[in-house]
Amino acid sequence: MQGKGFIKFVAILLGIVCLYSLSFNLVAYNVEKKAKAFANGDVVKEKAYLDSVATEPVYPVFGLNYQQVKAQEIKLGLDLKGGMNVTMEISLGELIKSLGGNTSDANFNQALANAQKANAAGGKDFIGTFVNEYEKLAPNGKLADFFANQDNSSLLKSTASNSEVRSYLTKEGNSAIDRSFTILRSRIDGFGVVSPNMQKQEGSNRIFIEMPGVQDKERVRKLLQGSAELQFWQVYQNQEVVGILENINKVLA
């Protein structure tokens, strides 16, 4: 009997813990439901509403605000919460073309085109396929002639074999994928997605992204696909414009 009593006690305790954990989801759901009703389908208004109540107490029993409740709630996956998942593919073809100085060599470009076709058909080792295709088209060709230059002389010699070039390109490709992963992660974090799941698919140039709870899918898609743009603006020192401003002031006085 004592054993049964202990089991009941543990079961009740587990039930209380589960209810406590789920209560955060319920409170967050109610707040988000009010936000949806207020926004009436406008995603921007809905987000603005949630931002406005982020520090407002929404769980009086524990004195927690919406932001704290969201941090405590059980994270739900796409199957329970909905959202979107995408697979981003890093263009290794463009990387190779750029590293090769955008050469117009027919064999080089044909090998690249063949590698892209193989990749589209499900091939995984893009760089390996490119090197193999080039060697078929130009058995005596040296890939180092395209990729070795003064800027990367410490990484790749002009006398490097095709195998060494392949290793160099593989490292550059992996580095490009890592950089893309970091950029995508920062963009997703900036968008405010809760508990995104990002994975680099081993043996390929693809990144799988799962984003629970995302509603404005088109906005997220544009955010992920957008290209960074660096702009330069000409600026002036104070002493360069003070004289001009004084002359303008005299004219207007």
Brief overview, please?
With about 250 residues, the chain is mainly α. Helix content is about 60%, strand content about 10%. The strands form two sheets. The protein has a three-stranded antiparallel β-sheet with strand order 3-5-4, covered by helices on one side. Strands 1-2 form a two-stranded antiparallel sheet.
Record keyword descriptors for this entry.
253 residues, 11 helices
Give the arrangement of secondary structure elements.
Elements: H1 2-39, H2 43-52, E1 57-59, E2 64-65, H3 66-72, H4 78-81, E3 83-89, H5 92-99, H6 106-120, H7 126-137, H8 144-147, H9 162-191, E4 197-200, E5 206-212, H10 217-225, H11 238-252
Looking at how many chains there are and whether they match, the oligomeric state comes to single chain
**Number of helical runs?**
11
Number-wise, the strands total 5
Low-pLDDT runs of 5+ residues are none
Describe the structure.
By secondary structure, the chain is mainly α. Among the domains are: 2-74, no CATH class; 87-182 and 201-208, no CATH class. It is 60% helix and 9% strand. A three-stranded antiparallel sheet has the order 3-5-4, with helices on one face. A two-stranded antiparallel sheet has the order 1-2. A hairpin with a 4-residue loop joins strand 1 and strand 2 (64-65). The longest helix is centred in the first third of the chain and has 38 residues, at 2-39. 15% of the residues are buried. The model has no long low-confidence stretch (mean pLDDT 80).
